[in-house]
Structure formats: structure tokens, C-alpha cells
Amino acid sequence: MVLKHLSLTNFRNYQETKIDFFNGINIIYGENGAGKTNILEAIYYLALTKSFRTNIERHLIFNKQNMFRIKGEFKDAQGRAFNSSIAYALKEEKRLVVNSQKISKFSDYVGEVPTVLLAPADLNLSQGSPQQRRRFIDLLLCQSHKLYLHHLMQYNRSLKQRNQILQAEKPDTQLLYSWEENLIKNGIEIIRKRKDTVQYLSESVKNFYLSLSNKEDKIKIIYQSNLVGNEIADIESEYRKQFELNRSQEIETGYTKIGPHRDELLFLIKGKPMKTYASQGEHKTFIIALKLAEFFYLQKQRGQAPILLFDDIFGELDANRIQLMLNQLSEFGQVFVTTTSRSFFDKAENFSRPVQYFHVQNGEVFVEAA
Do residues 29 and 339 lie in contact, with contact meaning Cβ atoms separated by under 8 Å? Predict the structure, then answer.
């Protein structure tokens, strides 16, 4: 997928801006606060119908306006044009239009513009909470498999309902049983897909880590479920067993203890948890390798290269990792990179893709010669 044209109306610090992009490496540079990240946020929002920086839509609206709109013109792997527009207005529902057709269910659209983001916050993925790692794998699978998104939405709805019943003064056990069946049905599919995907990612990350670090450290990712079993029938049996064993305690605490919402991704280096034993450099190299693996997984599943977004990460990396990353970038599809300094890319060698520079100043974008 290639983003050919982006149009912003009242989005962040852009009142009315139109940008033409290249099918190559698009380098967006400027001082902090100029609006570089806002451009990447707009692309991400157009692809996934949400921001990676805030859950509050009104915070995205330009000063004292009452709405914002993002429009994108894309070209897919077959060369077909693909137009998408998303708008939000105060006190109104978000509106998504694709190829002149209004989309009622946003879940039907997610994945049509496959996108991979690497931002400074992602560099804490290997050191942060299990929730962050579950969010990573869920976002990947929601983009790559529409059925997974369906199961995840149904699971979260059932989980919310069951927890509400658990928190009631006198929980209705029959209702509990009913929602438990929904949790089991959808939870099994979530666990199964997560396990298969993590197995693929583990091997891919190991290879990328080696190419980025030139070290043959034993890198591995393991999906750790609180439900024991490899076959679906075994997991289902364990699920029911755990619900029976924990129901009384869950009624006391008011929340569901069992299921994929409590599972974990273990990142290992030399057989030990990265969170405890890896250096800062090893953490950063691992996360970059993970994001590259995410890119190729999406490409394989969607049949086209995702849009790759790098938001101001080069200030977090040393010169060697910058050089290795730059060499990797030239092999991918369309790439967007934000940075405070254009000089970061003076070391770029042998780029096989065209490079275009965009200078951002106070909410204005100027195209510069490469």
C-alpha cells in the first residue's frame, strides 16, 4: 500500500494542509513542536481509525474549531486507486468513507491500509506491562485477520458483561454460565491465533536481531497462557475447569481471572527474561527487530507491503544502530520517518528507493530536494 496524497483539515496544528508523498522513503524533519508527529498520527488514524497518542478525539481538533477531517489517496499492490476519508465533529459520530461509500462498521475497514508504527513509547515494550505486549499482538492480528478482530470484540464484550455480574450484590449464576460460554468460544480462537503468530514472530525476530546487532544472542518469544493445553479440546476443558475452580473467588474480587486477557508474551535473551537481563541497547535492538518482523508478517497476510512509520526514534539510538536501520529501510515499501535533524540521514548509503525530504515549520510543510 502506498499513500500518494494526504489532506488535513483542522487536525492538530494543521488547519488546511495537502501533502504529496513518494513511494519510497519520506523524511519529515523539523524542530520539536513543529508538527512532524502529527503527520504520522494522521496517517495512523486514517489506517486504524484511532490515534496512537490519545483516546480523546476532541484533542485532535485544531484550535477552537468543531471538527477535523483526514483524507488519503492510496494505491494498492495491484496499482488500484483507493480513497479513504475520516472525520470527527463535536457531539457527532465519527464518519468513515471509503471510495465514496460510508462504512458503518469500522471493524470491516481495519487492515485495508496495513500500517506498522515504531515510536519512542514502543521502545519500552520489552520492559513494560503485559498489557502493552497483549496490545501489540492484538493490533497486529486485528490488521491481518478480520475474524480475529471479531473474536476479540466479542470476547471483550463478554468479559465486561461477566465482570458486571460478578460485581452485583447477588450474582446471577445462570447469566454467569451464559457469558462464560461466550468467553470460552472466543477466547480459544484468540489463544490459538496468538500462539501461531508468536511462533512465526519468534523466528523472524531472531534473524532480524542478528542482522542488526551482528550478535548471535539466543532471542526467543514465548506465548504464556494461563490455560494449559496445545489442542483446542484440551484448552476448552481447562477453561471450564478453571471457571469452576475460581468462580467463588471471582465473585469476591469482582473480576475474571482466567482467559487471554491475562496472558503474557515472554521476550527472552539467552534463555532469560529481557526485562531483567537485557541491556538498554539490547532492548532497543530487539524492539526494532520485532517491528521489522511485524512488517513482514503483515505483508505476508495482506499480500502487500504495509506503510512503515518511524516517529523520532533516531534520537534514542546510537550511530551504529542508526546506520543499520538506514540500510534496512532501503529494502522496504513506503516509509515515513520523523526526526529533528536532517543530518541523521547524511550517512545513508546505497538507498535503492527514492528519498524525499519534507521540512515542517509551525504547521507548514515544505518539500525539499533530496
Answer: yes
Burial of 295 (0-12, 13-18, 19+ CB in 10 A): buried
Residue whose C-alpha cell is 528507493? 353
Angle at 211 between CA 344 and CA 355, to 5 degrees: 35
Q: Are 330 and 345 in contact (CB under 8 A)?
A: no
The CATH architecture of the domain made up of 126-303 is: Up-down Bundle (1.20)
Q: What letters, b where the CB count within 10 A reaches 16 and e where it falls short, cover 179-198?
A: bbebbbebbbbbbbbbeebb
List strands edge to edge, sheet with 95-98: 14-20, 2-11, 67-75, 81-89, 95-98, 101-102
Assigned fold of 1-114+307-370: Rossmann fold (3.40.50)
pLDDT in tens, 108-119: 999 999 999 999
The residue ranges of every structural domain in the chain are 1-114+307-370, 126-303
Provide DSSP, 4-28.
EEEEEEEETTEEEEEEE--SSEEEE
Q: How confident is the model at residue 359 (pLDDT cuts 50, 70, 90)?
A: very high
Q: Coil, helix or strand for 362? A: coil
Q: Report how far apart, in Å, the C-alpha atoms of 90 and of each of 10, 64, 102, 348 are.
A: 13, 11, 19, 44
Regarding pTM above 0.90, the answer is yes
CB atoms inside a 10 Å sphere around CB 84: 21
pLDDT of residue 349: 55
Q: Report the alpha-carbon distance of residue 97 to residue 78 in Å, rounded.
A: 21
Looking at residue 125, what DSSP letter applies?
T
CB contact set of 97 (below 8 Å; sequence gap of 6+): 84, 85, 86, 103
User: How far from 52 is each of 60, 120, 136, CA to CA, in Å?
Assistant: 11, 12, 12
- SS3 of 79-120: the string is CCEEEEEEEEECCCCCEEEECCEECCCHHHCCCCCCEEEECH
How far apart are alpha carbons 216 and 325 in whole angstroms? 18
Contact (CB, 8 A) for 263 and 225: yes
Asked if the domains 1-114+307-370 and 126-303 are classified in one and the same CATH topology, the answer is: no
